[in-house]
Amino acid sequence: MSKLDSVVKDIAAEMRQRPDRGTVADYIPELAHVDPNAFGLAVADAEGELACGGDADLPFSIQSISKVFTLTLALGMVGDRLWQRVGREPSGTPFNSIVQLERERGIPRNPFINAGAIAVTDVILSGHQPREALGEILRFMQFLADDPSITIDRAVAASEDRTGFRNRALANYMKSFGVLENPVDFTLGVYFHHCAIAMTCRQLALAGRFLAHQGRNPATGLSVVQPERARRINAIMLTCGHYDGSGEFAYRVGLPGKSGVGGGILAIAPGAASIAVWSPGLDASGNSHLGRIALEMLTRRMGWSIFGG
Ligand code: GLN
């Protein structure tokens, strides 16, 4: 067994025993049914090894982790013009906050808070039917993970659509400033559905590989984005990927990362690994509680923090 494999298995075993598991999100009713004791970890390293522990093959709702991939797609479509519609500064506010939009004329602070991700989704949607835009996003995930079996959990999407009053408020507010081009219901429909993509830790770790390797998938040698773009996406993940918990995540884990309220985190160790962890219980900022602790242990034991040692 390699060092990586034994570290991953150790962490998964230890996490299963911990009593402190955080709180499963229930504002999307369908997510409240998820087993709080689930824990999965998968690490795809630079040598092509994939180390898995715990429930690494159970699919979960990736939720806001999808925002990394919609950002990548939107940058591919419109390049730096994207930054006219969304900023790239940390917000210091919760993921679903509306306060900053009033001060900044409807321009969201960054692509990873809900308002920002809705604006990015609107960019991807322009010139397409919602079904086409959604298909594009799903196919991109399948391509990156090299796995055509990845699907959208329609029950989760419908559940969020029924209860997504806050996101409707954010979208309508941005629309009033002219920041969204498409009908609000179309944009939100695509947004709710890409958040409801279900993936396993194994699939997610594979999908993130291009961010760890200067924009290239190391298994196929295919370039997904230019090195500069991968570097910049990682920078935004580091500064904004955990909302108002981004500073704490950088302090403790020391890697670019993106969380979702499904309890998943995608973390990138540049040059070394793409890491996916899943534990459904969340902390007060809406980030996976044990997911963060597991990543802290992993980076310490592998020496992967971008800040050294
Ligand atoms: N779909 C969720 C929402 O919009 C995503 C939030 C999250 O994962 N932080 O509320």
UniProtKB/TrEMBL annotation:
It is an enzyme of class 3 (hydrolase). Keywords: Acetylation, Hydrolase. The keyword Acetylation applies. It catalyses: L-glutamine + H2O = L-glutamate + NH4(+). Substrate binds at residues 64, 114, 160, 167, 191, 243, 261. GO terms for molecular function: glutaminase activity. Gene3D superfamilies: DD-peptidase/beta-lactamase superfamily (3.40.710.10). Its EC number is 3.5.1.2. One of its GO terms (biological process) is glutamate biosynthetic process. NCBIfam families: Gln_ase, PRK00971.1-2. Belongs to the glutaminase family. PANTHER family: GLUTAMINASE. Homotetramer. This is Glutaminase. It comes from Methylovirgula ligni. The gene is glsA.
